[in-house]
Amino acid sequence: MKAFLNIVSRDLRLALRQRSDVTMAVLFFILTTTLFPFGLGPEPNLLARIAPGIIWVTALLSVLLSLERLFLADYEDGSLEQLVLSRASLESAVLAKVLAHWLTTGLPLMAAAPLIALLFNMESDAFIILIIAMALGTPSLSLIGAIAATLTLGARRGGILIPLLVLPLYIPTLIFGVGAIDATMNSLEAGVVLANAKSHLMFLGAIFLVSLLIAPLAGAAALRQAME
Amino acid sequence: MSVFHRFANPNRFLKLTNTVLPWISGLTVFSLFAGLYMAFFTSPADYQQGESVRIMYVHVPAAWMAMFVYSSIAFASVCALIWRHPLADLAAKASAPIGAGFTFLALATGALWGKPMWGAWWVWDARLTSVLILFFLYLGHMALMNAFEDQERGNRAAAVLAIVGFINVPIIKFSVDWWNTLHQPASVMRMDGPSIDPSMLWPLLIMGVAFKLFYLVVLLIRIKSELIEAKLRKYRRALVDNT
Amino acid sequence: MDQLTTFFSMGSYGAYVWPSYLLTAAVMLSLLLTTLQRLRRNQAELAELESLKTVDKQQELQEKAVRS
């Protein structure tokens, strides 16, 4: 547990020192989403309808941008090797790295999402669902991303490889994340709204639990291979 | 596991392969021609789709293979990671391009069937979409396998990815089905399995068997080739050490 | 002749049916041929290296014989 907290706090401190790393993902998110009205025209109804999809797709890409550096710095400066040699639990180390990654990427994206929703004229009823969906979905993105990040350590084409590995695995999160918000916006009766959104949110939660189970195992296995 | 370990010995595997390969190859050719004959001459045209239904006899077996080969890769990966079975790595590596080939075929023939039936080369139908994602999984698997200087490391990493991907396949399939029913596609042709007429089912099944046998033949030759390559690497290293 | 044309026209779906089969044949054949080609190349190289090895051994034996 102590080792776990050590890794988290060290990563957070490092991220805060190099502020550009934290802000890059959010900045990319905001800049890219604001491009869409220029590409599609300023019609408010259209923008409101496609806002959930744009927010989720862009959030996905922003997370993708930050994945390569998730383990690379530790791999290059040898601290990963020390970690493997120290016989500490690699599974919990992976979880700690993921938690730090989510705090510096997923959480800022979650905070920025309502702002984008506002710019896209999304109904205010849907805001709360948007935030819950992001809270349940972005941790899965970090977890699944960690698998790809550990598997590609030391690979020749790390940069293009990670998107290729990760994007197919992100599709369920994208579908249910967008679906939850769509369900809120499309239905007329308030009771149905919640019921519709609820099933999507439950699937998002299920995906989170499955990734929470798999990612530490796969990540630790990949780290061991990388150090062999 | 004892059956596995008996064939873990590469020499015994080679001996076995060399004796069964001609038989399986013959069987493949026979079933392929029998399937083709039935597909073109004994099976009727569909009352709705006309002669275009004949695309089914390559499209559906290719789609079956896409999933079957991916499952085989995942199974081989488990054997490679847990039991460190020496042939499992080779089997996974040799399977990937074959599976990717069949997945590509399923997509391409699907498009060729979709154009006259749906009026479009591509619709975001649940099945087509899942197969497309499966194709991406294959590409990622192959790219990761070849991304390292050290082949061993590539095999190991690809094995982990194959297992993670395999766990994800049902999740992806389910989510795509869900997404598709939400967005109500304009018109989706249903090809429900059991209601299919025997005169169409038989050629379909025989083509399915033929494709599986073809996979087996190419897989065995590829593993044989990989084993020789391993021997070559050993020889080259010995030559370098001597000089 | 007429039968042949009706067969190849596939009830006006020929433009979709035949490319499907041709593509399938092309992909399966190229899988098989590249596999066989690689096997042949590896076998040839192995044979060459093994013959080298025996030549080496013969030379060794000869040298030993000369020295003694």
UniProtKB/TrEMBL annotation, chain A:
Keywords: Cell inner membrane, Cell membrane, Cytochrome c-type biogenesis, Membrane, Transmembrane, Transmembrane helix, Transport
Residue ranges crossing the lipid bilayer per the database entry: 21-40, 46-67, 99-120, 126-153, 160-181, 201-223
One Pfam family named in its UniProt record: CcmB
Compartments (UniProt record): Cell inner membrane
This protein's record includes keyword Ligase: no
Membrane topology type: Multi-pass membrane protein
Family in the record: Belongs to the CcmB/CycW/HelB family.
Protein name (record): Heme exporter protein B
The organism of origin for this protein: Kiloniella laminariae
Automatic annotation (TrEMBL), chain B:
Record organism: Kiloniella laminariae
Functional description taken from the UniProt entry: Required for the export of heme to the periplasm for the biogenesis of c-type cytochromes.
Cellular compartment(s): Cell inner membrane; Membrane
Family under the similarity heading: Belongs to the CcmC/CycZ/HelC family.
Keywords (A to Z) from UniProt: Cell inner membrane, Cell membrane, Cytochrome c-type biogenesis, Membrane, Transmembrane, Transmembrane helix, Transport
Transmembrane segment boundaries: 20-42, 62-83, 95-114, 126-145, 157-180, 200-223
Protein name: Heme exporter protein C
Domain Cytochrome c assembly protein residue range list: 4-183
Automatic annotation (TrEMBL), chain C:
Topology with respect to the bilayer: Single-pass membrane protein
Subcellular location: Cell inner membrane
InterPro entries cross-referenced by the UniProt entry: Haem_export_protD_CcmD
Keyword Cell inner membrane in annotation: yes
Residues spanning the membrane: 16-36
Signal peptide: none
Keyword Transmembrane helix: yes
UniProt keyword list: Cell inner membrane, Cell membrane, Cytochrome c-type biogenesis, Membrane, Transmembrane, Transmembrane helix, Transport
Annotated family: Belongs to the CcmD/CycX/HelD family.
Reported function: Required for the export of heme to the periplasm for the biogenesis of c-type cytochromes.
Protein name: Heme exporter protein D
Species of provenance: Kiloniella laminariae
